[in-house]
């Protein structure tokens, strides 16, 4: 079993292996390239397609961006991400259509064991010591707005039409049609017609 296969099988894996470093390196180099270009440069946005798992026809990243693997992330149509998007996609990340990310949003589909020896002292046959990780998927539904400075942790499902308030740390599932916020983030109430802002037109 390869180290990448271990990720998807829910096993502990060693992110320092050359196999995984090579996959990540492609995304890291292309993120650097993306971040170095002017936002009006027509060559900038297509760079995302060179390393992403899948993305819709219409999307925009304000930048800077940082993906860990890139190829483990799958994004639908009409996606928008504001400044400083960080996507730690060791585990797979699935994002639906019409999703908006505010500034400084982090999607963190990776974790380490809590017991120190499991995290830092697991030896392979060749004697090298692993910094062990494991990764749970993140699923974000359609029409979701994740506001600024939010962290979404691995294993979380965010339902369709949900809104995640600024500064939240999302560690549990959020149902469809709810506004949720806090640390830890909790569903607060359903979004209703009373939340309409059409009167501001």
UniProtKB/TrEMBL annotation:
<dbReference type="InterPro" id="IPR039369">
    <property type="entry name" value="LacA-like"/>
</dbReference>
<feature type="domain" description="Maltose/galactoside acetyltransferase">
    <location>
        <begin position="4"/>
        <end position="57"/>
    </location>
</feature>
<dbReference type="InterPro" id="IPR018357">
    <property type="entry name" value="Hexapep_transf_CS"/>
</dbReference>
<dbReference type="Pfam" id="PF12464">
    <property type="entry name" value="Mac"/>
</dbReference>
<protein>
    <recommendedName>
        <fullName>Acetyltransferase</fullName>
        <ecNumber>2.3.1.-</ecNumber>
    </recommendedName>
</protein>
<dbReference type="InterPro" id="IPR011004">
    <property type="entry name" value="Trimer_LpxA-like_sf"/>
</dbReference>
<dbReference type="GO" id="GO:0016746">
    <property type="term" value="F:acyltransferase activity"/>
</dbReference>
<dbReference type="Pfam" id="PF00132">
    <property type="entry name" value="Hexapep"/>
</dbReference>
<keyword id="KW-0012">Acyltransferase</keyword>
<keyword id="KW-0677">Repeat</keyword>
<dbReference type="InterPro" id="IPR024688">
    <property type="entry name" value="Mac_dom"/>
</dbReference>
<keyword id="KW-0808">Transferase</keyword>
<dbReference type="InterPro" id="IPR001451">
    <property type="entry name" value="Hexapep"/>
</dbReference>
<comment type="similarity">
    <text>Belongs to the transferase hexapeptide repeat family.</text>
</comment>
């Amino acid at each position: 079993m390869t180290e990448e296969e271990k990720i998807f099988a829910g096993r502990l894996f060693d992110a320092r292996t050359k196999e995984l470093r090579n996959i990540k390196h492609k995304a890291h180099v292309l993120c650097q390239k993306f971040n170095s270009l002017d936002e009006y440069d027509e060559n900038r946005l297509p760079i995302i397609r060179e390393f992403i798992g899948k993305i819709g026809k219409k999307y925009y990243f304000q930048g800077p961006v940082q993906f860990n693997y890139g190829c483990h992330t799958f994004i639908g149509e009409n996606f928008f991400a504001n400044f400083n998007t960080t996507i730690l996609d060791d585990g797979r990340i699935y994002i639906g259509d019409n999703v908006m990310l505010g500034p400084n949003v982090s999607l963190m589909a990776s974790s380490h064991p809590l017991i120190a020896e499991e995290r830092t002292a697991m030896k392979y046959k060749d004697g090298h010591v692993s910094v062990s990780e494991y990764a749970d998927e993140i699923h974000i539904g359609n029409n979701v707005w994740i506001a600024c400075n939010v962290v979404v942790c691995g294993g979380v499902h965010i339902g369709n039409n949900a809104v995640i308030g600024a500064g939240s740390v999302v560690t549990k599932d959020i149902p469809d049609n709810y506004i949720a916020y806090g640390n830890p983030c909790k569903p607060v109430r359903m979004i209703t017609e009373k939340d309409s802002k059409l009167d501001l037109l």
